[in-house]
Amino acid sequence: MMIIIGNILAIFRKELQGYFASPFAYVIAGVFWWLSGSFFVEILLDQEGIINQVATAEQLGLPIPPVDVAYVFLRQFLEVMGSLSLFVLPILSMGLYAEERKRRTLELLATSPLTNWAVAVGKLLGVVTFYSFMVLPLLAYEAIAFSATDPPVQPVLPLLAHVGLILLAASVLSLGMFISSLTDSSILSAILTFALVLGLWVIDLIAKNVSGPLGEALGHLSLLENYKNLIQGVLDTSSIILFLSYIFIGIFLTAQSIDALRFQRS
């Protein structure tokens, strides 16, 4: 067991160092930070933002129900961040295995003593950690905004929302890793993973518009629907299990894909 953990950590360190040494990864992070900061200002502080909407209604004496500005902002902001991440994640996952195939180093991994599961888990941990690094500035924005709220925001709400964001990202990255293992083209991998993301949106859309058992079944399978539960502060264990299931499926399929390559080479 210690050998397997050591192998996972070795792959994790290699993958993470690769991201932090890549100028392209910093470009992706920079664009993500710029867009997230723009959405932050627009949702909270813009003329049409939540604060101005509530202040204007109070000044005009309009009869509005009590509004928890912090909760509404967090829900709307994290919903936008989830959608924005779905555009960024295919780019992060596209080279996980495709670059190994292109450099012809995947054969070395496939025929090495490392288990395919250890390699897949290590790679996934590396890319999820880099994505978490991209999310860190969002926490700083929110901490500054929430420091001015009265009554103070309960820490469990933003904690649950960001755990949901990381789980959503890990699920998509895991499936993107499997797609990356099928091709030596990073661009094709990104396109196919983005197509998969569009499929997730379609499932969410159908679940909202179809009633009956089919709509309920698709709602349970929808990553976006379960993500929305978490950012609304609803801790549903079935949502956690669903995310973990998607992550497991991605790792399993990736390991099987590399096993097939190992069989072809033997």
Short summary:
This protein is mainly alpha-helical.
Task: Explain what you see.
The protein is mainly α. The chain is built from 12 helices and no strands. Helix 2 runs antiparallel to helix 4. The longest helix has 31 residues, at 116-146. The radius of gyration is 21 Å and the shape is elongated. The relative contact order is 0.13. The mean pLDDT is 85.
Largest sheet data? none
> CA-to-CA gap between the ends?
26 Å
Number of contiguous helices: 12
H/E element string? HHHHHHHHHHHH
Give the strand tally.
Answer: 0
User: Unreliable runs, pLDDT <50, ≥5 residues?
Assistant: none
Rg calculated over all Cα atoms: 21 Å
Please identify the structural class as seen in this structure.
mainly alpha
Determine the fraction of residues in helical runs and give it as a percent range: over 70%
Mean pLDDT: 85
3D shape: elongated
- Strand portion: under 5%
Question: Strands, helices and their partners?
Answer:
Layout: H1 2-20, H2 23-44, H3 50-59, H4 69-93, H5 98-102, H6 106-110, H7 116-146, H8 156-180, H9 186-209, H10 212-221, H11 223-231, H12 237-265
Helix pairs in contact: 1-7, 2-4, 2-7, 4-7, 4-8, 4-9, 4-11, 7-8, 7-12, 8-9, 8-11, 8-12, 9-10, 11-12
Task: List the main descriptive attributes of the protein structure presented here.
266 residues; mainly alpha
